[in-house]
From TrEMBL:
Keywords of the record: FAD, Flavoprotein, Oxidoreductase
PANTHER family: XANTHINE DEHYDROGENASE SUBUNIT C-RELATED
Short name of any one Pfam family annotated for the protein: CO_deh_flav_C
InterPro entries: CO_DH_flav_C (IPR005107), CO_DH_flav_C_dom_sf (IPR036683), Diverse_Substr_Oxidored (IPR051312), FAD-bd_PCMH (IPR016166), FAD-bd_PCMH-like_sf (IPR036318), FAD-bd_PCMH_sub1 (IPR016167), FAD-bd_PCMH_sub2 (IPR016169), Mopterin_DH_FAD-bd (IPR002346)
Origin: domain of life: Bacteria
Identification of the protein by name: Carbon monoxide dehydrogenase
Domain FAD-binding PCMH-type: 1-169
GO molecular function per UniProt: FAD binding; oxidoreductase activity
């Protein structure tokens, strides 16, 4: 196995063009497990650790540009206000050691349906900026996941940055696991309220072949909130609306039975998380989040 160590982004792109089968390694918290267990024996490893720009982030007017290798710990410590859903999700990843190494670029590279960043990215709204020597392109997060552990990257492309919408309202993330730390999600759910556009977005993890949004549930809730004037009057969402939303989230899941849980349990649990998160985020919106005139 050859180890390629580019000193710059341009060198990394050139190396990936020359060796499209080279496996990029950032934190290595997925790659090294696969190599140690002999699940993968690539001819080339492409070490991205000397590339400073992958560890940088920038907070703009509307988006955060998050370098692919920014570790979870940095997201938790520095981007909690701008990216609350992703910061909460980062908290649930593994242990401090893994959170100091692993990042969102690696989570996207692996594209496991159980990856914790995905529901938060889907709910917030994100685009993945990928680049090769041929140029760069932005992939909407919904189009990034193409199958179980598959993504939309071409063999010569690398993930450079993830553009994530700054929170304009409350966000939540939770996952179900057999214990509180070092656990892969049995299933997970993320919710973001977007008062500016009067919409909600969701993300479901580990309950379908890929991370997905519950689009029918979103449409239902968007219509119900609009119809009832909820964004303006800040009333408590009725239990029947919350239940219907949760049922539609459950229906959007397409889980399997596996060692971590049954399909039935996963479908049930994502619905419970959806209902709870709607309650938490809406309470927050009714309290500090709502600035519209007439807010009660
Ligand atoms: C003990 C343990 C516990 C874990 N617990 C969790 C957990 O709770 N939740 C969770 O989501 N994950 C968990 N993981 C998995 C892992 O930590 C995450 O997926 C992490 O985000 C991977 O990031 P990384 O930088 O280490 O990726 P790496 O291992 O370096 O890379 C992962 C994949 O992404 C590719 N890649 C990396 N960077 C790029 C790039 N810039 N462009 C293109 N491809 C790239 C690699 O080639 C590889 O295919 C755990 C892992 C371990 C070992």
């Amino acid at each position: 196995m050859d180890f390629l160590r580019p000193a710059s982004w341009e060198e990394a792109l050139a190396a990936k063009a020359e060796h499209p089968t080279a496996v990029p390694i950032a934190g290595g918290t997925d790659v090294m497990v696969e190599i140690n267990f002999d699940h993968r024996r690539p001819a080339y490893l492409l070490d991205l650790n000397r590339i400073e720009l992958l560890r940088e982030w920038e907070v703009g007017e509307e988006n955060v540009r998050l370098g692919a290798s920014v570790p979870y710990t940095q997201i938790m410590e520095n981007l909690r206000t701008e990216l609350p859903g992703l910061a909460l999700a980062s908290h649930t990843v593994a242990s401090p050691q893994i959170r100091n190494r692993g990042g969102v670029g690696g989570n996207l590279g692996t594209a496991s349906p159980a990856g914790d960043a995905h529901p938060a990215l889907l709910a917030a709204g994100a685009e993945v900026e990928v680049e090769s020597v041929r140029g760069s392109r932005l992939i909407p997060i919904d189009a990034f996941y193409t199958g179980v552990k598959r993504n939309a990257l071409q063999p010569d492309e690398l993930i450079k940055t993830v553009h994530i919408k700054k929170a304009d309202g409350p966000q939540q993330y939770s996952k179900v696991g057999t214990r509180n730390a070092m656990v892969i999600a049995v299933c997970a759910f993320g919710l973001a309220l977007h008062p500016e556009t009067r919409t909600v977005r969701t993300g479901i993890g580990s309950a379908a072949p890929t991370p997905i949004r519950a689009k029918e549930a979103e449409s239902f809730l968007n219509a119900a909130l609009e119809e009832g004037g909820f964004w303006d009057n800040g009333k408590i969402i009725t239990p029947s609306v919350a239940k219907q939303f949760a049922d539609l989230v459950s229906a959007a899941a397409n889980p399997i039975d596996d060692v971590r849980g049954t399909a039935k349990y996963r479908r049930h649990a994502v619905g419970i998380m959806a209902r709870r998160q709607l309650g938490w985020t809406w309470e927050q919106y009714r309290g500090t989040g709502r600035t519209l005139e007439g807010a009660a």
